[in-house]
Amino acid sequence: MKALITGGAGFIGSHLCEELLRRGDEVTVIDDLSTGRRKNIKHLESNKNFKFVEGTILNYELMKGLVDECDIVYHLAAAVGVKFIIDHPLKSMQINVRGTENVLELASKDKKKVLLASSSEIYGKKENGLFKEEDDRVLGTTTISRWSYSCTKALDEFLALAYYREKRLPVVIVRLFNICGPRQTGRYGMVIPRFIEQALSGEPITIYGDGKQTRSFTYVADVVKAMTELTNHPKAVGEIFNLGSGEGITICELAKKIRELTNSRSEIVYIPYEKAYQEGFEDMRHRVPDISKAGNLIGYWPQMKLDDMLKKIIQSVKQE
User: Domain range holding 240?
Assistant: First the structure.
């Protein structure tokens, strides 16, 4: 199998590369390195089944050649992190919408399977219970740029499903919830690497908001394994799946846990959203998925527990 991974030099993409190569696939990565890092895939470049192309998914002619050569596209390239989206709203929308349209249009010519990586941001401000794939979306006003990301990822899903229904393009959509592991950077607001870096350096651990917001965290190896299994399952085509952990934790509890595991004396400091991001910023108070759909189809139940995950990431940050 020849796989093309867009955004393959990113955190999740680099781990997906490893999983596919381990399975014996040939892997080509395209990444413009705007948020991905060459060092994430440096150790793979000696593998004869691996190829890296530096470029953007907005380059239609470049993408045409790459899609023509592959059997399946794992479309992970997207704007990354709340901070990046707020700082670069136009670029984020172009990458997420125009880039995805390029991928789907080119893949549809020969009906090549596409796995589309979507986001838990889809659900917006919904607060009640676990998030199910068929739940309604609750979003804020268009004057708050944070919600533009949710809308662009929703449009990606609409496009993918339209290509499936009208062009019979085999697509699988996964909504990712706070995936964590080695190589993830805190540069774009990802909370676990940011907390760990602060704790290890003795700096204050900075919590945005009151810290009572709930999140779930899942180890990257569990998720990339699920991605590959979903692309191989015929009943996954044309469907949407939550991939994450069904166990939530408040951000305040997470900060305390990381401080304890790093033996840090860092102070925990609370920063208002307006200072961390922008005036009028709105957050999601609750973001924990119902993962039973993927669990029932492919037996997806995350194996790595939070404490073990944090220990692995702490060790990785120390080594870097």
Answer: 2-182+217-245+289-303
In a domain, 252, yes or no: no
Residue 273 domain-assigned (yes or no): no
Number of domains in the chain: 1
Residue 120 sits in a domain whose CATH number is 3.40.50.720
Does residue 271 belong to any structural domain of this protein?
A: no
Q: Which of 74, 123, 149, 164 is catalytic?
A: 149
219 catalytic? Reply is: no
pLDDT tens digits, residue range 235-244?
999 999 999 9
281, part of any domain:
no
Q: Give the pTM.
A: 0.94
Q: What is the pLDDT of residues 250-303, one digit of tens each?
A: 999 999 999 999 999 999 999 998 887 766 677 788 899 999 999 999 999 999
SS (H, E, C) the chain: CEEEEECCCCHHHHHHHHHHHHCCCEEEEEECCCCCCHHHCHHHCCCCCEEEEECCCCCHHHHHHHHHHCCEEEECCCCCCHHHHHHCHHHHHHHHHHHHHHHHHHHHCCCCEEEEEEEHHHHECCCCCCECCCCCCECCCCCCCHHHHHHHHHHHHHHHHHHHHHHCCCEEEEEECCEECCCCCCCCCCHHHHHHHHHHHCCCEEEECCCCCEECCEEHHHHHHHHHHHHCCHHHCCEEEEECCCCCEEHHHHHHHHHHHCCCCCCEEEECHHHHCCCCCCCCCEECECCHHHHHHHCCCCCCCHHHHHHHHHHHHHHC
